[in-house]
Every structure is written in structure tokens, then in C-alpha cells.
Amino acid sequence: MPFPPMPNPHAFAVLLLTAFALFLFSRDKIPLETSSLLVLSLLAIGFEVFPFHGGDKPLHAVDLFMGFGNEALVAVCALMIAGQGILRTGALDPIGRGLARLWRLSPILSLLITLLLGAFISAFINNVPVVVLLLPVLISVSLKTGQSATPILMPMGFSTLLGGTSTTIGTSTNLLVVAVAAEMGLRKFGMFDFVVPAVLAGGVGILYLWLVAPRILPKRDIAISDSSARIFTAHLAVVEGSPVAGKPLTEALSLTEGKMKVLALERGEGNAVMLLPDIILRPGDHLVINDTPENLKEFESVLHGTLYSVGEEEVPVDEDNPLHDDDQQVAEIAIFSGSRLNATTLNNFRFVDRYGLIPLALHRTGKRFQRVRDSIGDIRLRVGDILLVQGARDKISELKQSSDVLVLDSTFDLPYSKKAPVAMGIMFAIVLTAALGFLPIAISATCGSLLMILTGCLGWRDATRALSAQVILIVVASLALGTAMLATGGAEYLGQVFVSLSGHASPALIISGLMMLMAVFTNIISNNATAVIGTPIAVSIAQQLGQPPEPFVLAVLFGANLSFATPMAYKTNLIVMNAGEYTFSEFVKVGIPLVLIMWGMLSFLLPIQFL
Which of 193, 245, 258, 418 is the most buried (most CB within 10 A)? Predict the structure, then answer.
């Protein structure tokens, strides 16, 4: 069948820009916010200079910005805020504690229950709080039982993605597909209209994650499994004959090339002297310093001093009396969406001063822990980063009560506030009013997020941090592209091309092919962009085939949710990847079979129910 002719120059330009947008969205080195703004700007400038008058209604540049008020985007933002309220109050904490107890009894059965519970909760709540809840539970259990955490963290993360596909509010992708389809004149999907194929296919996916995936993944210790101190506080005594005896402190710092960080100066037991750069060092003075054992021994050698452990100033450090610091503890902390550390540096945040903890290393996307302590304070952090920190046990405990980071260590202790039942009640009301049709999800979620703030479950500052500029901008840019494709006939043209390439294939095969195409796109570019751009194309294909559009739209919805093959496909993938120290190839090895399982099951189920 020959290719159809291009309807008009505007459609050609829009399709070129769409291809360019998909290319930009797939580039890791270009922030999605920048790519989205660039696409939106180019599109707006193009239609401002060359307005389109060929359709039923002229399309002007201002029409492209209507996405900022789109019902689905409002619902997505409101649910982000409500989910942050659940996270801040620790409303899911009792579930986590119950799972932790269950894991001690039967690990195999507990893994299945964890996968099912994660999927169920994620059907109604953004999966980020669910992953944030379950990560410390699973890491804690693995450390206490002496088992590796790597075979179970990735299956847990994927189970929350499976659960999110089953309802209209499970993911932002679902909300966007349903909203775009409704704007095109389709009947609006109810909350549970596609729950049957989602649950049946998801059930097979859960079995794969329970029985097969843990055997594919390697068993290895993650960095937190070695909880011994990396940084030690010690006393370096100035002795007779030392090159710095009778010299100012600046001389000692100069001899160590500025590497030595002096915390205090003691002149006699418990007698602290004001730390001034020009203070003269005397024999018998103790410099209180902290660093790695290697650096501490280097400072001892350079300054010809004597090194002592804190509290044991009578016994010099040697092979028989190594450095030790019994009060020190090492912990991993994860940066998640809404964290105040996201998009800033440790130095700008004054992390060391604020929490009294020393950052040791940074782990980011597929790389093992990098020991970059000297420069780590200047690295801009992002969602999914895992920091290895060290400090006193009471400081680690204080950090657990903070809402700035997620602490991953051997003691499962999430903050649980008196507002937790209130937050859970508000979330339940959001879901119930939307499910029963009393209010549209955009209104119920907006009212619920306002209640979260008014009842003190969430502060205004926390609410604003819950919003993701990346998600908002890429949704708006994708909606603008979708609007332009519809108005200029570009969506209809792509539908005609897809049908032409399909030849005489049956509608069921075309649905299957469309779903696979969306699955490929969602693992390379943004899932939200895939959903918004793919929905009008799906409707066009259905119209040309004379088939009901619902299964084609759902093919886009499910395909855009198959974000299992790459760690970049979904934000929780990055959090899980860094926490479990997975490589890219390990994600592909486990994720691609899950994509194929879900694709095969849904290709069979969608035509049966909807054609």
C-alpha cells in the first residue's frame, strides 16, 4: 500500500519538530527541562510567525500553552503533593514494620507478599513513596539475615510499576492518556475500566519477579554491608623535635599541603585552645583531626608527631593498637524527588554543619561507589543519587527523622508522626471520591493536597518541592506537540503511515505492534511524552480501521508504562539502581523479559475485552 501524501507544510514541520523532540528527550546529557522549553519555544515561535488556518479552527501560538491548565497535569501535580504528604508523615510506616517482621519468618513468602503489596499500593499512590518505604525494609532485612539485597531490590521496584498500570490514577502516564483521549471525544475511562487485563498480565509479571528475576540477578554485597568507619577522629601529638614545634598552625597546614583538617587544639587534657591560624604549637599539644587511616598516618609521618585514638591518648596508634571509633556509624542516604538536596550541592546546603556527618562517597547510575571525598561537596546532586556518609550514631538517628533524605541502613526507622492517620485518610478520600465518580480526579486530588497543607501534614515549602519541574515541562511540551499534530493533520498522517506499513494485518496485530512501539519509545525517551504523542496517533489508527478506539488507546497506555528495560525510563528505576548498585546490563537482562511478558499477555487480553 503506497504511503499517503503529506497533508500540508505545517504538518511536515510539526512532525520534524516531534522527531527532534524525541531525540532531545532521549539524550541523558541534556536536562529534560531544557529540552522541553526548547521544543515549546520553537513550536510557539513557528506558529506565531506562520499561523495555521487550514483546519476547522485556526491554531495560534497561544493555543500551545493551554497544557499548563490541562486537567491531567493538574491532577498529576496534586497527586505529587498528596504523595509527599504520605511520605513526610510516614503514613505507610506500619506496613513497613509489619513486612520487616514477616521477612524474619519466611523470606520467600515475604518477597511475594512484598511484591503484591507494593503493586497494590502503587495502583492508588504514586510509586515513589512506596519505593522509599520498601527500600530500607529490604536492605535492613538483607543485612540482618546476612543475605544479599541485590536479588530483591529490582523486583520490588518493578512490582510498583506493574501496579501503577491498573488504574487511571496509578501513574501520571495513565492520567495523561485518559485526559488526551477524552479531549478527542472518546468516552472517559473510569478508574477500574482496564483493571482486568492489567491485573491478569501483572499477575504473570509478579510471578516472574518472584521466581525468576532473583535468580538472574547477581548476589553481591552493596557498600552499606560494610558498616565499619571509613573516617576516624584522632589526636596528633606535637613532640619535641617536630618541624612544627614552636611554629604557627599555618606551618603544619602548609606541610600537609592543606589536606589536614584540624577540628580542635588541646593543650593539656580537656583544655581546648582557641583555634587561630597564627597560634604557636608547643610540644605536648594535641591536634584533633579526622580523615582516613592512610591520611592520618601520612600526617603523623610528615609532622613527626604521634597519633592516638580518641579516648586512648596514652596508647599510640600502631599495628597492635589500630585506629577505632566505636561511636561512628556509616549509612547510605538516597536523594528522592522533593528532597531539599535535589539539584543543589552539599556545600551549598551546608550538609556537614547542619547534620554533623561526613560525606565519604557518591554513587550515581551504574557506577560503584566513587571515593571522591575531597570534591564531593561541589557535585550537584540529583534524584537517585546515593551518598555514603559517616558520623556519630545519634547524628545518624537525627538524620532518619529528617525529611530531606532517605536513610538506607541496617536499622529500619522511618519517621512516623501523629499526622500519619490524617494523611492516609485524606489519600483514601481522594481515591474514593474519584473512584465513585463524585468528583473528577483533578478536583479531588487538588482538594486533598490542600487538606494535606491545612491539616499540617505538609508545609507549603514541602508542597512546592514535591512538584517536579521536569515532569510539568515535558508534559506541557508534549501536549503542545499533540495539539499541533491534531490541528495540522500530522497525527492522522502518522496513523495512515502506520496502517500502510501494517498491510493487511488484523486489528489485534496492529494493537500489539503499536504497544511494542510505545514500549520502545518509553524506555528511550520520557514515558509521559510517549503517552501524550502516541494517543492521538492511536485514535487516528482506530478511525482508519473502523475499529473502536479504546483498545488502541490502551495499547499506548500500557506500552508507555512498560518502563522496565532501562534505568532512565522511570525515576524510581534510578533510585533502585543506585541503592542496589546495579549495572545497566543487569537492568536490561531482567527488564527486557518482563517487557516481553507484559507485551505478550496484553496483546492477547486487550483484543478479547475491547474488540
Answer: 245
Q: For residue 379, what are the contacts with CB-CB under 8 A and spacing of at least 6?
A: 345, 346, 362, 372
- Provide the whole-model pTM: 0.76
* CB 478, CB 112: distance < 8 Å: no
Which DSSP symbol is given to 210?
H
Q: Are 9 and 507 in contact (CB under 8 A)?
A: no
Tens-place pLDDT, residues 530-580:
898 899 999 999 999 999 999 999 999 999 999 998 887 787 887 788 777
443 alpha-carbon distance from chain centroid: 26
Length in residues, the chain: 611
Give CA separation, 506 vs 134, 136, 516, 517, in Å: 43, 48, 16, 17
Which strands form 406-408's sheet, in the order they lie side by side?
358-363, 386-392, 328-334, 406-408
Give pLDDT tens digits for 256-272. Answer: 888 888 888 888 776 88
Pairing type for strands 306-309 and 232-237 reads: antiparallel
Burial 86-110 (b: 16+ CB within 10 A, else e): bbbbbbbbebbeebbebbeeeeeeb
Distance CA 173, CA 171 (A): 5
Q: Which amino acid is at 418?
A: K
Adjacency order of strands within the sheet including 232-237: 272-273, 262-266, 286-291, 232-237, 306-309
DSSP H or E stretch at residue 423 = helix 420-435
Cβ atoms 11, 483 nearer than 8 A: no
> Quick one: DSSP state of residue 403?
S
C-alpha 77/C-alpha 89 separation (Å) is 19
Q: Nearest 5 degrees, angle CA 588-CA 592-CA 596?
A: 180
Distance between start and end Cα atoms, the chain? 24
Where does residue 191 fall: left (phi above 0), alpha (psi -120 to 50 degrees), or beta otherwise?
A: alpha
Give the CA dihedral 426, 428, 430, 436, nearest 10 degrees: -150
